[in-house]
Amino acid sequence: MSYRFFLGCYTQQNTSSEAMPAKGIYTIEISEEGKLIGEPRLVAKQVSPTYFYLTKNKKTLYAVSEPGEGARGLIVAYHVAEDGSLTAFSKQVSARGGLCHVMMDQEEKNLIVIAYHDATIESYPIDEEGKITPMFCLRHHIGSGPVIDRQEAAHTHSINFTPDYRYAVVCDLGIDQLRVYTLITETGKLHRAPGKNVICPPGSGPRHMVFSPDGRFAYVACELNSEVLTLSYDPQMGLKLLVEFAGRGDPRLLGRSCLGLCLGDAGAGLAQHPVEARALGLAAGSARRAARRAAHSVGVD
Q: Which long-range contacts link 280-285 to residues 24+ away (Cβ below 8 Å)?
């Protein structure tokens, strides 16, 4: 048995002078023992694909792009073949700039995308054929944080639904907040959830989050201080910040960028970054793993 991963990258830059120019979306096969089977294979050409959503039936992959500065983002829908090959069948240009995250609601009727530099959340209804229809709703964050060179403005980075799909939670790196919304599935409209936002430690820069398998806890990877925040979740009370830890006690990791976070039960998870490695393989168990950019490391808790 093996596992298939789809990999994104920045196509405008390479990780080293010896690297081949990246061209889009790649696929790799990993054995149960964690060994690479064959070589990465280009399955679709797309400018800087940064994040993906694979539908529950594994037949459609939605990919978002983060082109160069000033360019608008792109959303592409692909049919997924048995061998992992991709065929594009629908596209939409985003309302704002480059996109860094994508998620769907429980019924997979709406695609929600995140634009980092513009600090926007955009929803795109999906038709019966899986095609992306024009944007229906846009929400915009404003504000700033104490880290002047990274928090000069709001920067939405990811969106996740709570396990019961009651709320959509947006990590905003620029204002150190988790902004909470509700989604009207029939229309794709996002509404703010009064009193449900979470204030994170100043200068932490929340980037990505995952929920525990039982849905009672959430973990947030903070890019700017390399901390992982732990929160409790209750459908009525919402999210509540509990504890935080920094760098697993290793002073060499303090101040490093914490990029991705995976919580394993069985199978595999993947966090990606276009410049430095962010691939995380999760074996059986419930270990919490976080990738750090500058340290090229994975922390396990």
A: 281/30, 281/34, 283/34
